[in-house]
Structure formats: structure tokens, C-alpha cells
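Worked Example 4.2. Read the sequence first, then its C-alpha cells.
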Amino acid sequence: MNLKKIIVYKNDVLFQILNEIKDIFHFDVIKLNQIDYENFEKKFQTDFLIISNSQINKLKSQLVIDKTPLKIERLLEQINLKFLKEKFNFQSDISIGMYKLNINSRQISKDSKTLNLTEREINLILFLKKMQSAVKIGELQKKVWEYGAELDTHTVETHIYRLRKKIKEKFNDENFIISSKKGYFLN
């Protein structure tokens, strides 16, 4: 499980407090007194939040603590809200080739056209996007449908067929999901 990272910038007391409660709230705390802007986002790619006493203009995911004293409950509430907003924003704009996938609205779009998707279709697309190579039906059964051998392979094939048909009708794209002898993959 990837822990969210809270980066405390130039605040030793706050770092100590958060470090003591990090296991309870399932986050990791990192203390920084200097920021290498060029490599920062590469190093802390996702799920991070910077807490500082003042705005750091070059970084987007920040929580500025400018009013003190601050109750710990309020601080934890602000941290949680910030992570929820970041997750919502991330889920609103996932690139899938030429398409944009919005998990929040369950839509995929290209140019000005939008198509509604089911939760299963979204899960299928996200799983295929994550995989680096073709995926066999058996693996899709286990990972996307969360079933074993008792699931008829035609169920998976039918869902993929219907999704490909929807994509073709809406976007005139016959190559969104490719089928090969090795399995299925996104183009």
C-alpha cells in the first residue's frame, strides 16, 4: 500500500507532532528545510502534500498553516480534505492515449465528444492502461471481475465487445482495445 506523504517544510514542531501520529492515520512524514524544485515532483510523484507556514509558489499541492495556534483535529481535517481534493482532481483527467477519462463522472472523451461508461468499463480501461503488455482473459477475470475459473470467459469477451462497439460508434475508433493471441491491450 502506498502511503500518502506529508512533507513538512521548515517547521520542526509540526514535523514532530505529525511524525508521532503518522501510523494511526496512515501517512508518511518527511521533513524538508530546502526544496530542489527541479527534481521535487519526480521524487514525490503522487500522493504528497506540503505543509508550510507560507505559500511556495512553484508547488501546487500545499497546505499553508498561517494561523496559529491550530487544533490537531482541524489540521488533520485540512490534510484529509486536501488529499480528497487532489484525488478528485486526479480522477477527473486521466489520459488514455488520445482520450481523457473522468472517473468521477464516469465518462471518456475525445475532442468535444463524450461517452458514458459503466464502473466495470472504467475498471477494465484502467487495468489495461496499467498493464505494459497484453492481458489474457483469465487475468481480467481475476483482477477486474474478481472471479476465478467459475466465471464464463464469454462474460469478459461480451463486456469487451460492447465497450469496443460503444467506442467505435461514438469516436469511430476500432482500435481502442486490441485483441491478439496474447490477450487484450489498449492501443
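Now turn to a second chain, presented in exactly the same format:
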Amino acid sequence: MTKPPLLFDSKRVNFRELCDADLDTLAEIYADSATMQFIGDGTAKTRENTRQELKKIYAFYAEKGYSVWATELKSTGELIGRSGLLDWTLKEEQHVEVAYLLARSFWRQGLGTEIARAIRDHAFRTLDIDHLISLMYPDNAGSARVAEKNGMSLVGTVTLFKQEVLMYRIERSQWNALQKMERE
């Protein structure tokens, strides 16, 4: 099966739509309880759970034009996780979340920050949105650091999956200022 075309990239990572050929690798990543401890309800997923999630992702591609994407290492073409944009209605407000999940063997290499910035930039360049958020469990210090490096600030907590999670946020105007500083 041919992989879907490249959507965008960063220095070390390519982003494309997920496809059925990704099921085995994604299921392997989702089966790791350490990888999944801060994702969704915090539990590892079965191959069938992964298959069902892929169906939902495909529906979001068709409806919204985005969801989470295959996240591949440029140097090898290896699927290392999935990352992208998720829609949420929280406290009666619409949000788009910068979301990412990496296989444990790719943690602590700066990839989370690189991926989060690439998704942030892609979202602000392609979507008519005024802000982005990142959500994380309070004890996920690594993701909090990534959100801060992504220009986001802690704005409070929300309830998600029956748990209080932290919400970080960046406004389009803040992103515009960051872009201007990078060009100077």
C-alpha cells in the first residue's frame, strides 16, 4: 500500500495522513503502558482499539481536513508516533489542541518540541483560528515544558476523561509576534 503524500515537515520529521498500513506500528506504540500513561484515559490500547481510533481519525480528515497525522522520522521513514490537531469543546468554548504522542524510544531527543512547533505553525498558517491549546495531566512535566517552549502559557485546568488536566494556550497574536522575532 502506498503511503499518503507528505503534508508538511520539520527539520527531522515528516507529517502525513495515517493509513491502514500504519495499524501494526501504531498498535505497538499504543500497547506500551508507559507511552500511553498521559494520553486519553491513561491506559494502553489493544490492536482493535487502535483500528477503531484510525476509523475515527479518517472521519475527522473527511470532516475537518485535519486530525492527528502519521509522524515519521525523516532519516529512516519510520513511524515514530502520531501528532496533530484535535477539536475540543471545553467550558463552552471551542478549542483546537496541539497533540502529539511519540514511541518511548524517541523521548528526550527534542522531538516533542520540534513536532509541537511544526503543528502550531501549520495550524496558524492553514486554519482560521484565534488560538491553540495543549492539554496535559498535572504530573506530565515533560509536556508542560514542551507547551512553554511552544510559546504557550498555563491558563488553568479543565476536566477531561474525569480528571483535572492543565490547559496551556497561545493566541494567534502571540504566534505572530514569535514569527516576527524569528525573522529579525
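Notes for the reader: Residues 10 and 138 are 28 Å apart (CA to CA). Helices lie at 23-30, 33-36, 47-64, 111-126, 141-149, 172-183.
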